[in-house]
Amino acid sequence: MSADQYEPIPTVKLSDGNEIPLLGYGLGTANFKRGNKDEINEKIIGDTLTALKVGYYHLDGAEAYGNERELGLAISRSGLPRHQLFVTTKTSCRQGESIETAFSRSLAALGLDYVDLYLIHSPFFSGPDPKPEELQAKWREMEAIKDSGRAKSIGVSNFLRPHLEAVLSIARHKPVVNQIEYHPYLQHDVDDLIQLHREQGIVIEAYGPLTAVTKAKPGPVDEVYERLAKKYGVEEGDVALRWCLDQGVVALTTSGKEERLRGFRERLPKFKLTEEEIQEISEKGRGKHYRGFWGHIFKEDDRR
């Protein structure tokens, strides 16, 4: 089955007028490059080509993953027209280096003239308690990248409410996206981060959306996922993704398995959760806290 035999992945409009596909393929986690960063990893290229073949045209990369060259090579080998793709990469904001320098290096590694979305990978580039003026200075550099036309949209990742508020207070271009770990066991309720997103028109991008299925069992949503999967004739992972998609949250999957990628493409368009089912998962999820990433920054019980 080729990509054009599946229903197109829906998009959501960003505050700058551009559109982002609601389902994306992430090159972090499973394809995070370890070992010799200079050696081309054919498996990463192969996994990305598999995702492209199945129609995952939203590709999420980052300088920190060490695999921008592999992402670029997969794009080149796919033969797909550039306009058909939505490509994201992120800057690590290395100390003593401008974002212009980092962005130019990323573009060269990708072999592209522009990216669709460029993100600050985290607010913690200077430590666990970044100063507002540091975040603001970096955001002004991001705005210059957007003004140049080499990034169609700009945003952030792993920002909490104070970090977003610092940037929003001086922004000429608002962040269009905040990419965060988001699943029923990490809903960021403590400081109303999700509410701030909605008030400011910032799209939530979820990484780790399958966490309650893949990493955090047993837990209070297990029974709900199982029951809804049986009701709709799908897998529990499909229910986990629909919980995001049905809230207008962009979801990223990092699987390198073609069967799983095809399964999501085939089954996700066939059902939607009701408002009551979305709320039930949310309420059950608040009965457990689990964070899979950034443990060196957050305390174990920190639900932000």
From TrEMBL:
GO terms for molecular function: oxidoreductase activity, acting on NAD(P)H as acceptor; oxidoreductase activity, acting on the CH-OH group of donors, NAD or NADP as acceptor. PROSITE patterns: ALDOKETO_REDUCTASE_2. The record marks K90 as: Lowers pKa of active site Tyr. Residues 26-284 form the NADP-dependent oxidoreductase domain. PANTHER family: ALDO/KETO REDUCTASE (PTHR11732). CDD domains: AKR_AKR3C2-3 (cd19120). The active site is at Y65 (proton donor). Substrate binds at H121. The keyword Oxidoreductase applies. This is Alpha-keto ester reductase-like protein. Keywords: Oxidoreductase. SUPFAM superfamilies: NAD(P)-linked oxidoreductase.
